[in-house]
Amino acid sequence: MRMNKWRADVQAFLFLLPFLLVYVLFTFWPMIKGVQMTFYKWTLIKKMQYVGWDNYRRMLQDQEMWDALWHSTIFVLLTTPTMLVLAIVLAMIANRKSRLQKFYRSVFFLPSVLSVAVASFLGLFVFQPYTGLVNSVLHWLGVLSDQREIFWLTETNLAWIAISLITLWWTVGFNFILYLSAMQDIPDEIYEAARLDGANDRQVFWRITLPYLSPITKTITMLQIIASFKVFLQIYIITGGGPLDQTRPIIQLIYQTGFRKNDLGYAATMSYMLFAILLVLSIIQYVINNRKGANA
Amino acid sequence: MKWFYRIVSVVMAAIFLLPVIWMLVVSVKEEGMKIVSVVDWFTPPYSLAVYDQILNGTKLTDWLLNSVLVAVFVTLLTVVVAAMAGFVLSKVPFRYRAVAFFFILSGLLIPGEAIIIPLYQVAKDMNLLNSYEGLIIPVLASPVAVIVLKSFFDGVPNDLLESVQIDGGGTWRIFTSIMIPLIRPALASMAILTFIGSWNNFLWPFLSITDDNLFTLPMGIPTLMSQYSEDYVKPMVVNTIASLPIMLLFIVFERQIVKGVSLSGIKG
Asked: Is B157 or B167 the better-scoring residue by pLDDT?
């Protein structure tokens, strides 16, 4: 488009202005402001005194912070591989020609539209002992004898399993759709050729389907790691971070430090720890994505 | 082997559906029933009495309305603002365009959760805490939306624009009457994703709102639940009321939602 150069610049700027205004005020400015906060004792009411690098020193020696980071990492390790496997299995189910094809697609995505609070509370009740859905179904099926109960939410390892299962159920829908559309892009001729050469189901899956899905698998893996690192509400509702803070993730610790212990300066410092980790992960993701080329 | 696949499929579907069906069924049970076996959940007596209590005795419907209002405004404004930015980044050559593009692109690397503490301070300084504006404005700038929409504008051929220009159309007219209609499917997909994102947004409302008249559902639900003990009926009624509108929306717009999600993977 050609027009008076100066007018064009002004016009373009006006188009960008609404976005840039919000972006600078509520993304860039807080990012800079946050750095300042890490060097102060800073409460919910006001800025207190300058403390230099104290918050950083304190953080590096803070066992609670390292524990919380480890808990977020546990959650990443538990949910990422299981998410990939589950998403592929569900996509294969919904990709098979059957009268229920559309039904499967809807059912597997349905939980994803629930509010995070609803999904978490549903999970909380599903995993209650005695009358919760899981235990009562297990009793009914006879898998669990009548005298025994599984206390999902009060034993650390079981609590992790419960939290992970709920999260998978609630969020797998997005990844499932990504895999499904990637599977539908695999040309039929390739399958037909493989069948003609006498390949069985297993060979077709390992030699054709999976390799074709590998670009999207890389993308999903990284996005999943980043998203899982930011876990908060499911855990907050389901276990409250307990038992004994054994499942408390980093964001919950940041929240409690800032808003319960009235220490925004230190909370901001821990936020930058999280920021640094997520930044590294995002850069890795960017590099992996751009190496694969064509994808815009 | 075919049967094996079929059984696995049905069992998976059952596992995915069961919690939702359970929620709906428990929500219409009578309160205080003794539950001995899982079958008891699914058999009468049924009652809608608790619906009446929750709808009329709590602020849940106000929160539902707040969630809808916030999500609608966030969605509209996010998409409009991002489309305007994406359009000039794609179609209007101007000075510092590359700089502007990389400035916005770098936003993809800034996780909202990691700057939420200073954002609270900034919003407080601007008197945005405890207000609808505070729920809406700070979340409007979505670099992802700009980048995705820009790539769609890139797909519109330039000769189309030149013919309008000879016609004497200005930039704004080109944007509204040519570009917007051409990328409408992408806008719709973006809008749906933004809506779901806003609907689920918890951390920001949780920190910035303390007035319970301004709560959105993700904050209101835990507040309400903390008052209920033992019985499942009230919580399930709350869950159901909070979910029915969005589930209906899903059933109506399923195709667009699915398309929107696959689109987000391309950008990922």
From this structure: B157
Per DSSP, what are the bridge partners of residue A50? A40
**Considering CB atoms only, which of B19, B67, B88 is closest to A133?**
B19
Looking at residue A294, its pLDDT comes to 43
Burial class (CB in 10 A: 0-12, 13-18, 19+), A100: middle
ipTM value: 0.86
Q: Give the homologous superfamily in CATH for domain A62-291.
A: MetI-like (1.10.3720.10)
Residues A122, A126, A132, A136: what is their CA dihedral angle, to the nearest 10 degrees?
140
Q: Residue B85 is part of a domain; what is its CATH number?
A: 1.10.3720.10
**Whole domain around residue B32: which residue ranges?**
1-47
Per-residue pLDDT, averaged over B13-40, amounts to 84
| Chain B residues near residue A295 by CB distance under 8 angstroms | 266
CA distance A209 to A262: 53
Distance CA A282, CA B179 (A): 32
Pairing of strands A47-50, A40-42: antiparallel
Q: Looking at chain B, which residue has its C-alpha nearest residue A132? A: B38
What is the total count of domains within chain B?
Answer: 2
Annotated domain spans of chain A: 62-291
Say yes or no: B138 and B20 in one domain. no
Interface touch A12/B250, C-beta < 8 Å: no
Picking from B74, B80, B103, B117 by the largest number of A CB atoms within 10 A of its own CB, the best residue to mutate is B117
Domain-embedded: residue B52: no
From CA B145, how far away is CA B263, in angstroms rounded?
Answer: 11
Closest-CA residue of chain A to B115: A31
In the predicted structure, residue B164 carries a pLDDT above the cut 70: no
Q: Residues B31-39: what's their mean pLDDT?
A: 73
Q: What is the mean pLDDT of each run of 10 residues along chain A (296 residues)?
A: 70 91 93 87 81 86 90 93 94 88 91 89 88 85 81 88 94 91 87 86 87 86 86 87 85 88 89 90 80 50
